[in-house]
Automatic annotation (TrEMBL):
The organism's place on the tree of life at top rank: Bacteria
InterPro entries xrefs: 6-PGluconate_DH-like_C_sf, NAD(P)-bd_dom_sf, UDP-Glc/GDP-Man, UDP-Glc/GDP-Man_DH_C, UDP-Glc/GDP-Man_DH_C_sf, UDP-Glc/GDP-Man_DH_dimer, UDP-Glc/GDP-Man_DH_N, UDP_ManNAc/GlcNAc_DH
Keywords: NAD, Oxidoreductase
Keyword Transcription regulation listed: no
GO BP, one annotated term: polysaccharide biosynthetic process
Top EC category: oxidoreductase
Pfam family, any one: UDPG_MGDP_dh
SMART domains: UDPG_MGDP_dh_C
EC number: 1.1.1.336
Family: Belongs to the UDP-glucose/GDP-mannose dehydrogenase family.
Single GO MF annotation: oxidoreductase activity, acting on the CH-CH group of donors, NAD or NADP as acceptor
Domain UDP-glucose/GDP-mannose dehydrogenase C-terminal intervals: 321-421
The gene coding this protein: wecC
Name of the protein in question: UDP-N-acetyl-D-mannosamine dehydrogenase
Length: 421
């Protein structure tokens, strides 16, 4: 299969940051016959990409990457170049006070500034608090006072925000088929960004301004966080009242306008546990429910740990089988994982407890766990067989399908409600 020739005006695009989002974005644009330079500060990433190898796991993506690299449409390097358009896909972590840390955006822009020429488009794709795109544009002008943001000027550059929306694991499908929200600082900025994303996205390209686009992304993930917090709060209430929360939610969801999500050991991943803080830190007075939801979800691991401690009471040299450390089911991603943190705290604060960790999706335990002497990785059946307390933390398919007769005589703490009879 050969790449289609683009009909767009973009002859060279530079994608800065080749992670889970930047690299697939670069490859999708390259697959449309546009010459793309992918830039990353990590030279190992760059090397592996130029050999057509994906440096992380994403189903089906390896074939596309290999093709665009072999055809010469995608080249990775550590230095930025002159281009018609730039897409910035760098991490936007938060600092201690939950305010965004823009150090990666700033260094991307510093490296870009000398190459920028009038007419160029700069799109910020990294998830960001409202106002970040405008701040980025102003920083560009500080570095390049000869350029302008006024579209009537001859030396104008164009700036827009287009937040990513793909679900890792489904990027091949969602990169092309998810609607995109695109907001420029000026109308021409929006229009150029729509043309750029239109090279590979076949879904709706929804136009707005930059701040609304920034808020749209944060709103989507906060909506989910608030709804999960509601389910988690119900699990605490139900425990106090002696009610089965899973039955409660199932019954309530029979109402035609009620659709409650599922409780669990907390909320993890690099998006839903992070993005709501960007709203809270920009408008703390107003963002009351969003903040409360973060606190409820962040408080759930401590509640689970208390339940385990209660189950261990009176047991001498007890053994706990901890099932799952990924941030959600059937993936190997451990970022911001509440399950991982529960296991780490249990292990380090209770040296007399023998902890057997079962995680079918990773071959070795991360260093934060392997350094704990009373903790080791084990196969599912042996771990459950030897355990006094079985702590289910993630609804991986292996655990859902497990023979539940193995649980007879054990204390069971099922944070995902998968073993209800
Ligand atoms: N979770 C629950 N109960 C539920 C659903 C989820 O406890 O009913 C937990 C999961 O176990 C996990 C966390 O929430 O710990 C987040 O998982 P998720 O599947 O809700 O979301 P992510 O983080 O994998 O992906 C989200 C998606 N956003 C939305 O659904 C609004 C995805 O579309 C975004 O692209 C992604 O964040 C992102 O990168 O922002």
């Amino acid at each position: 299969m050969h790449s289609e020739k683009s009909t767009q005006t973009f002859e060279r695009v530079c994608v800065v940051g080749l992670g889970y989002i930047g690299l697939p974005t670069a490859a999708f644009i390259a697959s449309k016959g546009v010459h793309v330079t992918g830039v990353d500060v990590n030279s190992k990433f760059v090397e592996s990409i130029n050999q057509g190898e994906v440096p992380f796991f994403e189903p089906g993506f390896d074939v596309l990457l290999k093709r665009v690299v072999e055809e010469g449409y995608l080249v990775a390097q550590t230095e930025q170049v002159e281009a018609d358009a730039y897409i910035v896909c760098v991490p936007t972590p938060f600092k201690e006070d939950h305010k965004v840390d823009t150090k990666f955006i700033n260094s991307a822009v510093e490296a870009m500034a000398p190459h920028l020429r009038p007419g160029a488009l700069v799109v910020l794709e990294s998830t960001s608090p409202p106002g970040t795109t405008e701040d980025m544009a102003n920083y560009i002008l500080e570095l390049r006072p000869d350029l302008s943001l006024d579209e009537d000027d001859e030396n104008a550059i164009f700036v827009a925000h287009c937040p990513e929306r793909v679900l890792p694991g489904q990027i091949m499908e969602e990169m092309e088929n998810n609607d995109r929200v695109i907001g420029g600082l000026t109308p021409r900025g929006t229009q150029l960004a729509v043309e750029l994303y239109g090279t590979f996205c076949t879904a709706e390209l929804l136009q707005t301004n930059a701040t609304t686009a920034e808020m749209a992304k944060l709103t989507e993930n906060s909506f989910r966080d608030v709804n999960i917090a509601f389910a988690n709060e119900l699990s605490l209430i139900s425990d106090r009242l002696g009610i089965d929360v899973w039955e409660l939610i199932e019954l309530a969801n029979h109402h035609p306008r009620v659709n409650i999500l599922q409780p669990g050991p907390g909320v993890g991943g690099h998006c839903i546990a992070v993005d709501p803080w960007f709203i809270v830190s920009s408008v703390p007075e107003e963002a009351k429910i969003i903040k409360m939801a973060r606190d409820v979800n962040d408080g759930k691991p401590a509640w689970v740990i208390e339940q385990v401690k209660a189950a261990l009471e009176g047991k001498e040299s007890p053994t706990v089988a901890a099932l799952g450390i990924a941030f959600k089911n059937d993936i190997d991603d451990l970022r911001e994982s509440p399950s991982l943190n529960i296991v780490k705290t249990l292990g380090s604060e209770n040296p007399e407890v023998d902890i057997r960790v079962v995680e079918p999706n990773v071959s070795d335990l991360p260093e934060s766990l392997s350094a704990i002497p009373n903790l080791k990785k084990q196969e599912l059946e042996t771990a459950v067989h030897d355990a006094d307390v079985v702590l289910l933390l993630v609804n991986h398919k292996e655990f859902v399908q497990m023979d539940t007769s193995l649980l007879e005589g054990k204390s069971v703490i099922d944070t995902k409600g998968i073993w209800r009879s």
